Amino acid sequence: MIVGTAGHVDHGKTALVRALTGVDGDRLKEEKARGITIDLGFAYLPLPDGHTLGFIDVPGHERFVHTMVAGAGGIDIALLVVAADDGVMPQTREHLAILDLLGTRRALITMTKVDLATPERLVEVHAEIREATKATAFAGADILAVSSATGQGIDALRERLVAEAHALDERSDEGRFRLAIDRAFTLPGIGVVVTGTVLSGVVRLRDALLISPSGLPARVRSLHAQNQPVEIARAGDRCALNLTGEGISKDAIHRGDMLVDPLLHAPTDRIDARLHLLPSEPRAVEPWLAVRLHHGATEVGARIVPLEGQQLRPGHSADVQLVLDRPVAAAVGDRFVLRDVSARRTMGGGQFIDLRAPERHRRTPARQAERAAWRIDDPQKSLAALLDASSSGRDLDAFARDRALSAAALQEIVATLSPLVFDAGEERIAISDTQWQRFVAAVIERLEGFHAAYPDLQGMAREKLRKAVKPELAPDAFALALQHADLANRVLRDGAFVRLASHAMQLTASRQTQWTAVAPLLGGETRFRPPRVRDIAGVLSLPEADIRQLLKLVARMGLVDEVSHDHFFLRTTVHEMLQIAADIQARAPDGWLAAAPFRDRLDCGRKVAILILEFFDRHGVMLKRGTLRRIQPRYLDLFAPTT
Ligand SMILES: Nc1nc2c(ncn2[C@@H]2O[C@H](COP(=O)(O)OP(=O)(O)OP(=O)(O)O)[C@@H](O)[C@H]2O)c(=O)[nH]1
Ligand SMILES: [Mg+2]
């Protein structure tokens, strides 16, 4: 069990930890000289039953509140220290507020220095403490009277802590490994050591991990939990890890970094969160207010964008977007504390909701529904709600990563919810049954609408369709979705276009009129050397572009083929030419098709004959060797009339 001290400067926190454990947490020369705590202190008290009580001793001075927040993140129980002579003071209240915001559920309150106060004073301070804690999670906590100077009450307090340790539920090891680093230093002969509290999961010797947000790889060479060498450490343990790896050095690692399972490394600088603004705040939070964000052992500048209304008033809670000065390593549900930019006061705090918050459309009802879904504690219920709320399907691995879920936990959830999953390489996109039905209906409806509006187009551009349909799937997932059995027979892909299987292209009335005029020009005697686009336009006195468009259209319908640029032949003519070529080849003694006899039979001139043969080459109908060609028999029907 990890105990964290809290309380105003000079109220006797360090002295109390020393009285309980025999260890002096004030290690620094400056701390000794000034008689105050500056950095976090650590002490361990092994118990006869094998348990170890770990203590994190924090500074009380108002200038070091950021250090107190860094220390208070991973504790199991808070030990609030109030000096009987001084009574409740500003940092007593501020530390209380911070513990409350960090979600600390257990606390013991000690009234120290009782040797310095009269019995009347003790009664007074007792009442002050009750008053100060009444609106916090520690309202009913016991208040123990102690003196580190005389030893009064120390044994009773220790026994009480031992009882608390036994009553504490084992923390679950579930989830992937995360540890908030609060110290990094080098030990001679050993190397780089980091310390911190394991927030989730387990860590073993030789594990490969990452420092986040830097992304530096590290391997665990040795491992201590509660000051004892171990092979494995788990959530709730206070660890010291000797790390090795290229680039690992004391200067490359900082307080506030996270040591994580490599799969969890995905720093973020835009987070939607639930924020509670303390009632003591002088002003409401307005958009883009600059603050200091404290999370785990890290501290970073941030700006606040209220998402419900334009302001957040003191004493109220609301969803906000936090825009960070630099990315941090975080998980959904993590607690945070906000302090003002000049680091004078604690303003409020709360919990992270969504680590991948969008910059735009962040206040829409759809986003509100997504945040509500993320906020659900139970990961299975949360994913179910997210799948229903999602307007785009949900990347399963990103979901598991942001909640630090193990592979097994994710698998179990997916097996229970059994959503449709599209395995699109990097991503596995899940979509709920309801959303899938909606998607299928939307695809069909959109294509029907498109075909009705543009009967002469072969179909809708796939990317355009993807964006027009809700839920909007990512491109890879969308391509897979169109192949799903529910759609595969009804929707066809045609190059970059998508159409309904039932759709047959039709010309509009005006196009039909044009085609009726153009078609005879392509047939008849001159069908093997038909006029080009420009010639047709001249004959009919129509714009060239119009004729080109018409011919491209009827080409898609299979009535003509563009043999070379702007030179369209009737499909029946192309078929006929291929038959002629086959006939020539059949009669040739060497079995090869030459250009000259082909030109002679078509009477189209050498240049056009070559263009026609090259057209066949492009379609793979003919194999060319030198100037000769051989027809691939299996392609003979390529231009045959469809029945
Ligand atoms: N008489 C008496 N003095 C005490 C007691 N506890 C602490 N002190 C004295 O009070 C002074 C401050 O004690 P610390 O333990 O350093 O106080 P702290 O809360 O750790 O202070 P910061 O860490 O700087 O916030 C020291 O001179 C202690 O010797 C006590 O129970 N009785
Ligand atoms: Mg101290």
Tags for this model:
643 residues, alpha+beta, 6-stranded mixed beta sheet, 20 helices, binds guanosine-5'-triphosphate, binds magnesium ion
Structure overview:
The chain is an alpha+beta fold and 643 residues long. 34% of the residues lie in helices and 28% in strands. The chain contains 20 helices and 31 strands. A hairpin with a 5-residue loop joins strand 20 and strand 21 (346-354). Helix 16 (533-540) crosses helix 17 (544-556). It is elongated and about 125 Å long. The chain starts with a strand and ends in a 12-residue tail after the last strand. The mean pLDDT is 94. Bound molecules: guanosine-5'-triphosphate (GTP) and magnesium ion. Guanosine-5'-triphosphate (GTP) binds at residues 9-15, 35-37, 59-61, 112-113, 115-116, 147-149.
Rounded mean pLDDT is 94
Shape: elongated
- Residue stretches low in confidence (pLDDT < 50, at least 5 long) are none
Annotation, overall tally of beta strands? 31
- How many H/I helical runs? 20
* End-to-end gap: 81 Å
Helix content: 25-40%
Cofactors, ions and other ligands in the entry: guanosine-5'-triphosphate, magnesium ion
> Tell me about the biggest sheet?
6 strands, mixed
- Measured by DSSP, the beta-strand proportion falls in 25-35%
Strand order of the largest sheet: 2-3-1-4-5-6
Rounded radius of gyration (Å)? 38 Å
- Alpha-beta classification: alpha+beta
